[in-house]
Each structure stands twice: as C-alpha cells, then as structure tokens.
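User: Just a sanity check before I run the rest of the batch. Below are the structure tokens for the first item. I only need the designed sequence back.
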C-alpha cells in the first residue's frame, strides 16, 4: 500500500474487513461544511475513488437526506 497515505490506508484496511461501509447519512454537501472530520473523510474517499480503489455510492432516503456508501473494488488487497 505504499502509494496510499496513512489515512487512505486506514480506509482500505476498514474496507478489507467489510467490503461496504456507510460513511454518512444526511446531506453531504452541507454537512461536511460543519465537520472537519467528515470533510476530510469525504476528500480521502473521493481521492481513493479517483485512484480506482473504491466506488462511492449514494441512495436518496428523502428530501436532502441520503445514505453515502463506499465499496472496495475486488482488486484492492
């Protein structure tokens, strides 16, 4: 995992144990403005998705209410 930062490695290890993870429920564009940790995690997960390591998904639960999930891709070890 040399090409990944320590925080990225943390997420990959978490996803190694469970291939799917709900990382937020609510409205991410608004909620991440008020939480530094959520903002950091969202940026890291987006970076991992751009590297092809994970897939980001969202499901609409209601008005401005979503479930945000991350899934590891099969080739990530």
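Assistant: Here's the designed sequence for the first item:
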């Amino acid at each position: 995992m040399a090409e990944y930062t320590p925080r990225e490695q943390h997420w990959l290890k978490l996803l190694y144990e469970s291939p799917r993870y709900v990382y937020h429920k609510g409205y991410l564009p608004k909620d991440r403005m008020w939480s530094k940790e959520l903002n950091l995690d969202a940026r890291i997960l987006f970076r991992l998705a751009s590297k092809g390591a994970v897939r980001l998904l969202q499901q609409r639960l209601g008005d401005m209410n979503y479930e945000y999930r991350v899934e590891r891709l099969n080739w990530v070890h």
